[in-house]
Amino acid sequence: MTVTTAGPDPVPDRAAGEPAVVVESVSRRFVRRRGPFRPARVVDALDGVSLTVPRGARFGIVGESGSGKTTLMKIIAGLDAPTSGRVTVAGTDVTGRSGRQLDDLRRRLQVVFQDPMGSLDPRMRIGQIVAEPLQAQGRPGVREAVDRALRQVGLDPAIAGRYPHQFSGGQRQRISIARAVAPDPEILIADEAVSALDVTVRATILELLETIAAERSLTLIFVSHDLSVIRRVCDRVAVLRAGHLVEAGPTEQVWSHPQDAYTRGLLAAVPTLDRALAAARQRAGGAGGTGVAGVAGGTAPGRAGVAAGEPAGAPARQRAGGDPGAGSGS
Ligand SMILES: Nc1ncnc2c1ncn2[C@@H]1O[C@H](COP(=O)(O)OP(=O)(O)OP(=O)(O)O)[C@@H](O)[C@H]1O
Ligand SMILES: [Mg+2]
Predict the structure, then answer these.
(1) CA atoms of 103 and 41, how far apart (whole Å)
(2) What is the mean pLDDT of residues 19-43?
């Protein structure tokens, strides 16, 4: 894959066939002390997890709440260290690194979390929020990169002077995505990035993530407890249960022939995106076409004032087609 690094200190390109992420026998034990007279509580959040994320993949991680998904993502992103095991990102061992050693990883990998309000500093303007990781990396051309990122997520760069509370949940998640993609990472981790959103907004944000992953040739690691969302976005999936990897493979294979009873349970239990979208369409009076964009277009609220305003032919809109959610109320 082509690595576009705009910074003054470009990361050397690596062998093209190298996997994006290799996780080898990773375990993470949390020991919670509960006072002097009570025994400490031990949680094995991850227990011997191994998986390989190929470059350019859209890799899903699915599992019920508490199965260890976020713990694994934090370890891959260098935000937490495993108790044992090893993680390699683009050929570099990142386990046990700190400070400057992680700068290289931060250039290559960015994370979008579930709660856009929690991850966006309410006192900072949108422009500053999106610019922050670029400035931290000493990148030149920050203003242009911020404008480009905002346009790519369907927002008008003119919103740069506003604050997070002035936006809806979907728009805030667009801002989080702009912040994550502005430094041009190779790998984007989305941890339950759409779970807090209304179902129709969720569909437009999923579409946006897919479009951006394709346009920027990103490796996307997409975490969700909902296998139907994973199926929509990901070509491969790994299933976590109580810190163990129970199965992994091409999404369609896991979807149609789940090997493990737990995976079958996940399939049976989760509300599927398709079903939820159909219900939303029905509530909207049967309006909206078959495509996701149609649904979003029929229901997107609060669009005034944040119209995209990007020039005709801007990449994100090409694939999103007439998605009025882009740059609007989602
Ligand atoms: N900092 C921590 N200290 C103690 N225990 C923790 C810590 N972080 C996670 N855990 C525990 O590790 C287990 C896995 O948590 P994790 O957040 O990785 O699950 P998850 O799959 O992301 O769940 P969810 O779907 O709810 O986000 C849980 O039992 C959790 O309570
Ligand atoms: Mg989590």
Answers:
(1) 34
(2) 93
